[in-house]
Amino acid sequence: FKDSAGNVIIKERKGKERKGSVNLCSPIQDPPLETWTESMVSNWLTSIGVKETYIKKLHEEEVDGRILCELSEEYLEKKIGLKSGPALLIIKKRDELINSQKARS
């Protein structure tokens, strides 16, 4: 959700809200992946076109940015139950994001 100033409002567990200026379409403004919350990961997964059922599975598994950095395609398929296409997409886009963040630092 966005407020009137264009800030992203992320609903955290237990109804807490967190405001930020994260623009998931513009990686230049993204905070480091390792600091992302579960909700930020879910928003990013939505932005890259992952189906809601898979996003819910990853959220239920409490995947935050730190964990997302460690996931493998095989783990997503065998342990989380994702199909190979979405698993490959997530890993490919995650690696692109990590590389773009490293290039900026």
What is the strand and helix layout of this fold?
Blueprint: E1 8-11, E2 17-20, H1 38-47, H2 52-60, H3 65-70, H4 73-80, H5 84-104
Antiparallel strand pairs: 1-2
Condensed summary:
Residues 36-82 form the SAM domain. This is SAM domain-containing protein. Helices cover 51% and strands 8% of the residues.
Descriptive terms for the model:
5 helices, mainly alpha, disordered N terminus, 2 strands, 105 residues, globular, DNA polymerase, domain 1, two-stranded antiparallel sheet
What does it look like?
By secondary structure, the protein is mostly helical. It has one domain: Transcription Factor, Ets-1 (DNA polymerase, domain 1). The protein is 51% helix and 8% strand. The protein has a two-stranded antiparallel sheet. Helix 1 packs antiparallel against helix 2 and helix 4 packs across helix 5. The N terminus is likely disordered.
